[in-house]
């Protein structure tokens, strides 16, 4: 078991490291003014633009903002207009279906293999305009975004989880390579562009958080380290499309590369809008602050488990959480958990997840951690494999099938064994409120799914 994923697609970018830190990042030395964030004449002829992700007077420890020093302000753009609202991905019907059944998606019907913008809404709760709840989307992309086109969500913060494949993401604040067995988070409003390394397809999941921001769970009596350690998160470094030249007074100035107009596609209340602007949005020469994209290798999770007897609750697998403010302490809009390869020993204890009913909803993802390009878990003929997802709603009983229940009862629990080393990591979106499904997601789901924890991973149709 590797403590760091040996990715098939090798890293090509460098990063800052540390979740929640304040960073100063410069593509050109001296691009960020010190100490005045609002310098009258910023270095290199740049313009100051601040992005605030939280209330301006919130607690300092949770106040998220970033100052960007860019060649041209994003203020310079044409009018936004509705974009492609005759297509489902640009104007999805509202999610309105609830079911008391456990449901699964062995695969996902995908009408057209598009780019990053052609995501499909699975379900939602809350309201992005009230900044409550979340939405879940699938993506299955087979081509780069159109040239000089970027995307942003005005609805929420995006947690991106590839099932298989890689994403090359250029954001206003820098570049990230995100591969299967990694996750990435992009804050609300950040503009970015997604391409495919070597043109190879990528599929996966997005949880768009409408309320607040993802953060690390508190460790309590665990102490200073464990679960997802803050020092393992990676943050892109400043990068811009342009160059530095001598100005009229022999001062150095940053100049953008000459391009034609750029298209800005933004999601608002799940619907897409578009505008154009005359310059590249990737003209940020330096930035400093606490609001930024980041990524994380799921192999680095420092798993906590019982070593004598019993089962810890699945909360010990939580990587990121988003507290539900105004609710009982410990309540989350969403917890993102990762259940991957680990050693297990607990005497006289049933090894598999037990039969369980839970006030939280559980949306389970299959993440292929096997990095072999020919892994049998990836069926190139299927839209999703070995399965897409399954959902257990409020108080829906879930657990093993009878065959595996009996096999685990007969197993020797006194010896350490490696579990979940078959190349598949389970990701979990655990959320507080029921998930309303869109019509296509409800109609394509297999109802009353019973074999979620079998060695076959999920039932097939």
TrEMBL record:
Homogentisate 1,2-dioxygenase N-terminal domain segment(s): 15-298
Class of enzymatic activity (EC top level): oxidoreductase
InterPro entries assigned to the protein according to its UniProt record, in alphabetical order: HgmA_C, HgmA_N, Homogentis_dOase, RmlC-like_jellyroll, RmlC_Cupin_sf
Stretches assigned to the Homogentisate 1,2-dioxygenase C-terminal domain: 301-448
The UniProt record lists the keyword DNA-binding: no
Binding residue positions for homogentisate: 398
EC nos: 1.13.11.5
Cross-referenced Gene3D superfamilies: Jelly Rolls
Pathway(s) served: Amino-acid degradation; L-phenylalanine degradation; acetoacetate and fumarate from L-phenylalanine: step 4/6
GO molecular function: homogentisate 1,2-dioxygenase activity; metal ion binding
Cofactor(s) this protein requires: Fe cation
A Gene Ontology biological process term: L-phenylalanine catabolic process
Residues forming the catalytic site: 311
Family, per entry: Belongs to the homogentisate dioxygenase family.
Record-given protein name: homogentisate 1,2-dioxygenase
Source organism of the structure: Trichoderma guizhouense
């Amino acid at each position: 078991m590797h403590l760091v994923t040996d990715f098939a697609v090798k890293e090509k970018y460098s990063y800052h490291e540390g979740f929640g830190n304040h960073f100063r990042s410069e593509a050109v030395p001296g691009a960020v003014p010190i100490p005045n964030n609002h310098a009258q004449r910023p270095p290199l002829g740049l313009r100051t633009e601040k992005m605030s992700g939280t209330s301006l007077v919130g607690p300092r420890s949770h106040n998220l903002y970033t100052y960007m020093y860019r060649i041209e302000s994003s203020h310079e753009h044409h009018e936004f207009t509705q974009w492609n609202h005759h297509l489902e991905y640009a104007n999805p019907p509202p999610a309105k279906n609830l079911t008391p059944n456990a449901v699964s998606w062995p695969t996902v019907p995908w009408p057209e293999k598009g780019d990053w913008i052609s995501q499909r809404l699975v379900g939602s709760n809350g309201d992005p305009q009230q900044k409550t709840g979340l939405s879940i989307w699938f993506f299955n992309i087979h081509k780069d975004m159109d040239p000089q086109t970027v995307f942003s969500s005005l609805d929420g913060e995006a947690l991106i989880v590839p099932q298989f494949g890689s994403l090359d993401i250029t954001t206003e604040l820098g570049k990230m390579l995100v591969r299967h067995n990694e996750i990435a988070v992009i804050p609300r409003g950040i503009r970015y562009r997604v391409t495919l390394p070597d043109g190879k397809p990528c599929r996966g999941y997005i949880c768009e958080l409408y309320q607040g921001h993802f953060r690390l769970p508190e460790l309590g009596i665990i102490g200073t380290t464990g679960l997802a350690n803050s020092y393992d998160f990676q943050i892109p470094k400043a990068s811009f499309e342009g160059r530095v030249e001598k100005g009229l007074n022999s001062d150095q100035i940053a100049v953008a590369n000459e391009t034609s107009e750029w298209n800005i596609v933004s999601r608002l209340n799940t619907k897409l809008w578009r505008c154009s602007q005359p310059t590249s949005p990737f003209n940020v020469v330096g930035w400093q602050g606490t609001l930024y994209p980041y990524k994380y290798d799921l192999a680095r999770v420092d798993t906590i488990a019982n070593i004598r007897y019993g089962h810890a609750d699945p909360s010990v697998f939580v990587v990121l959480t988003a507290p539900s403010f105004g609710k009982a302490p410990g309540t989350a809009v969403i917890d993102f958990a990762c259940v991957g390869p680990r050693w297990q020993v607990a005497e006289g204890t049933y090894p598999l997840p037990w039969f369980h009913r839970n006030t939280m909803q559980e949306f389970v993802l299959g993440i292929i951690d096997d990095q072999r390009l020919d892994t049998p878990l990836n069926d190139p003929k299927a839209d999703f494999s070995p399965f897409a997802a399954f959902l257990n709603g409020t108080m829906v009983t879930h657990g093993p099938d009878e065959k595996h229940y009996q096999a685990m009862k007969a197993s020797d629990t006194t010896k350490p064994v490696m579990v979940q080393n078959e190349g598949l990591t389970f990701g979990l979106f655990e959320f507080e409120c029921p998930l309303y499904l869109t019509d296509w997601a409800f109609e394509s789901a297999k109802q009353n799914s019973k074999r979620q924890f079998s060695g076959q991973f999920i039932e097939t149709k």
